[in-house]
Amino acid sequence: xxxxxxxKTPKVYIGGAFVRSESARTFKVSDRSGAFFAxxxxxxxxxxxxxxxxxxxxxxxxxxxxxxxRAQILYRLAEMLEARSAELVGSLVRFGAREADAAKGxxxxxxxxxxxxxxxxxxxxxxxxxxxxxxxxxxxxxxEPMGVVGVIAPDNPPLLGLLSMVAPVIAGGNTVVALASEKxxxxxxxxxxxxATSDLPGGVVNLLTGFRRELVPTFATHAHIRAxxxxxxxxxxxxxxLGAASSVKRVRLAETAGREWVSDSAQGLSLIGxxxxxxxxxxxxxx
Amino acid sequence: xxxxxxxxxxxxxxxxxxxxxxxxPAPETADPKLKDRYDLFIxxxxxxxxxxxxxxxxxxxxxxxxxxxxxxxxxxVDAAYRAAAGAFAGWSALPGRERGKYLFRIARLLQDRARExxxxxxxxxxxxxxxxxxxxxPMAAAHFFYHAGWADKLEYVAPGRRxxxxxxxxxxxxxxxxxxxxxxxLAPALAMGNCVVLKPAETTSITALKLAExxxxxxxxxxxxxxxxxxxxxxxxxxxxxxxxxVAFTGSTEVGKAIMRQLAGTxxxxxxxxxxxxxxxxxxxxxxxxxxEGIVNGIFFNQGHVCCAGSRLLVQESVARQVVSKLKNRIxxxxxxxxxxxxxxxxxxxxxxxxxxxxxxxxxGVREGATMYQxxxxxxxRGFFFxxxxxxxxxQSHRIAREEIxxxxxxxxxxxxxxxxxxxxxxxxxxxSAGVWTDKGSRILRMSTELKAGVxxxxxxxxxxxxxxxxxxxxxGFGREGGRQGLLDYVGLE
Lengths: 287, 494
Known about the structure:
The structure holds two protein chains of two kinds.
Chain A: E1 12-14, E2 17-19, E3 26-30, E4 36-41, H1 45-64, H2 67-83, H3 85-94, H4 99-119, H5 123-127, E5 129-131, E6 137-145, E7 148-152, H6 158-171, E8 175-179, H7 186-195, E9 205-208, H8 212-221, E10 225-230, H9 234-245, E11 250-253, H10 269-273, E12 276-284
Parallel strand pairs in A: 7-8, 7-10, 8-9, 10-11
Antiparallel strand pairs in A: 1-2, 3-4, 5-6, 6-12
Chain B: E1 37-38, E2 40-42, E3 45-47, E4 54-59, E5 64-70, H1 74-93, H2 96-112, H3 114-125, H4 129-148, E6 163-165, E7 168-172, H5 178-191, E8 195-199, H6 206-217, E9 225-227, H7 232-240, E10 246-250, H8 253-262, E11 269-273, E12 279-282, H9 288-300, E13 312-316, H10 317-332, H11 352-367, E14 371-374, E15 389-392, H12 399-402, E16 409-415, H13 418-426, E17 433-437, H14 441-450, E18 455-458, E19 477-478, H15 483-487, E20 491-493
Parallel strand pairs in B: 1-5, 7-8, 7-10, 8-9, 10-11, 12-13, 12-17, 13-16, 15-16, 17-18
Antiparallel strand pairs in B: 2-3, 4-5, 6-20, 11-19, 14-15
Helix pairs in contact in B: 2-4, 3-4, 4-5, 9-10
């Protein structure tokens, strides 16, 4: 008799731990052939709030790490993904991606992490400045993390989209609560397992799975989420921008779609710049 | 507080002149060259509003009418957007070098007429002439001059990217620094090649319309800048117009949120420069006399009508009594009165409505149990005036410690440790500015790192410079004005 394989219980990654939804709700995920694959947590608003709490706790520690250290941790994450890229590509193919597309997306994803790893100790020099004011002050502007940033990932591509959105945000010293693709959530579950082994402190990236219509409104209105970076349709964008108004939250809508995510135009310094605040200090010059 | 102050807490000397040294009036007499009626400025010309309606702009220091201002309706706003859209192709295609020259011209022409503009600003808004003369007008000219030099350097604005102008920008500005806010908004937008539809605040439209004369003299191509005057309804039309590629707003957090909701269904770019409740933090090693001057400047500059005003004083407990005592003495000799008088420290409150807001919040402070001290100064019989006011025994939950008063009212809280100061300073929905007073450079930098505010002033307050980015964290808004960073809000990246 053939050996019966041991199947995995998909869990979401919140605060450095693998958990089910507090509601114990799940939704069924099927593979490309339509066969049952697994039950994935259907996270609730409460799960989202818990994730925000975890992200807020992790925030100051992550922001205080040296840029060099953040760079090495992002690089380490790329190492973890490279080593397990076959598994990730397999998961993408299982849910419908073409083998070549999945492999290409995976390669771009790893390279993109390295790209942002390299930015960690450089963006401050390009986004910040010393300002030649007309008085006896040393006046300088530095970028600082915004805090907790919500990320709403696209369905296509589910993994590269998520990685491309999370990486600039954490490179800038923020912590993240991300909602994975609703249609293809499993690669994000795998990503969580890799984050856990990447030296990224627990809580810096929190990954939720679930239904967008249930969670997008809370991403919009949760006052501790200081910015949202969303791949969203017109209706969701409106919900986000409307909810964001009550706490003057920054909303950045992803302009990238489909195959554009593999292009170099889907990455850049300006994406780090969209998730930092600029602080200007007037320091007196004198004896 | 203990009942008897220690001797060392009391100022050693206090000069009492009584009325022996009363100042003579020293009014500024330059002619503001006002017109009796101001029309809309659309397509490079002054045009009557379609409705034919006008509203009066009054001098808040004596409640007399200064001029009638055109009331722009939706169709006027539409005409302004059409004029701006028509001018965009030519303006954005102009070589940066040439575009810059127009801005240099505007800066120079404004300097030529600086005193006239200062008087007009003071008459219309109520601020002391020494501020409009020495701060508002020269700083406005400086903003045009600074940004003029950027117009031909767009390739240096965003490393690695090509920047392009956005199109027509809709802008709405407040009444506290009418000409200066106009300059903050126009200069970067124009330098980057955009065209503008701008609405000044309804109580302070005059200097904007005087600047339109300067734009004509500078031969700025028609339609590049269009000014529509009116109140909230006109503002909503400017912000909501589908022809705007981007909107920029400076004003209250409440209105900013309303605009964000109004535009929620669009993908329009926005920048918001909103309210504040800045902590001004005084440590016990600070040069106290210098700090007292800074506190006074922080909250009483422009009658406290400053979004980044240092309206929450956090003073270390060990020097609190001394600081409060010196502050009381200092505010008792602030001269409140005729804004045109060169010796005036505090002018008129901008409007009757704002005066009512200040009174309401001050009453809440008394009701909620804080202790009020007001300067015994005499207030003019006519016009809108409010005496310099401070509150002690303020707790963090008091409305006067949480809400923006936008008037000459200081709330004083105390702290013991650095960590407590940071926590109290950051305990607000706002995050525009903060002040730190200490002799220790390392402490300045630690505080600056921890304070959640867009601008941190160390051993100074309310300083501005065109090269220095200004803007808020949290509910104080997003986007920056000034410096290279401020330009990014007026370009698209390719």
